Amino acid sequence: MRIFYHPTERLAELLDRHDLLGIVGYGDGQGACPWQGRAPYQAVALAPQGPPVCEVITGGVAEAGMRHGVRYAHDGEWLFAAVAVGAKGSIAAGAVDAYGRILRVAEEEGYGCLIRAWQYFPDIHAADEGLERYRQFNRGRHRALEGYLARGGIRPAASCIGTRSGDLSVHVLARRVPGAAIENPRQVSAYRYPDTYGPRAPDFVRAMKVASEEGASLWISGTAAIVGHESRGPGDMEAQMAETFANLDALVACADLGGDRRVVATKIYIRGDGALPPLPDPWNAAPALVVRGDICRPELVVEVEAVVTGGGHGRTE
Length: 317
Ligand code: 3EB
Fold this sequence. Notes:
The protein is built from 3 helices and 22 strands. By secondary structure, it is of the alpha+beta class.
């Protein structure tokens, strides 16, 4: 399993590859699909800094398909699955629909353990029947995951970001065997947030640790300047960066990845047109994708997700 960023303009270079699990395209959400290959392609309406870019997820020899509106590919170990549903109406209903379809396909294909989820939809702060759409989304996600959790499923690591336009876009990585949930000692678990943040807490874990033949990997959720359950440094990029990376460091320290750990990819979401200060060690060692989007609390201006490997090697291209 590898992740790398590739210019959208040169996507045709990947057409002959048989190891593609999924491609996620970051751009303005306009224009024709730039990908003509078999692997699932998920368009996300978040503008990157610089020209349009794709996140490419590769594994072993992959088999691709489409069912229940879900595009997917799997390699015997990992499943990538992606769906887009309309986001103009109830986003709670959208979450039920999107997660419902993805879970069906994941379970039918034998990859019933969610590891990592990415969720993007427009107008995340707008009100719907008196409740912010992000909070509505959490209601729907909870309903969608109830059966999965009752069967002993573990919440995935996640990111949830507001876009300017487009559908509700959900894509996941899932496996045949469960990962290990890692929580952050500096933060209240998101699924235990008090109801001052909405009637349903967000169903995700701070990170998911996976052991495979290649070594261990840690899939870190979108991480922001939240300590306990409260936001720090409202609107202040420098202050939020410091808390965010303190959170990331604490999480990695808890994950017990061994000495030869490596950051292999980071993705940074920034609100508005603020500038991004330099990243601290060791987070600046990996290729970073910077995109603009709405972090799910209005006072938060930056959120960082990452993949860190250890106990073996982290492959890079
Ligand atoms: C937070 O820690 C910041 O709802 O899936 C980060 C990652 C956040 C994922 C989600 C929300 C989600 O609460 C927001």
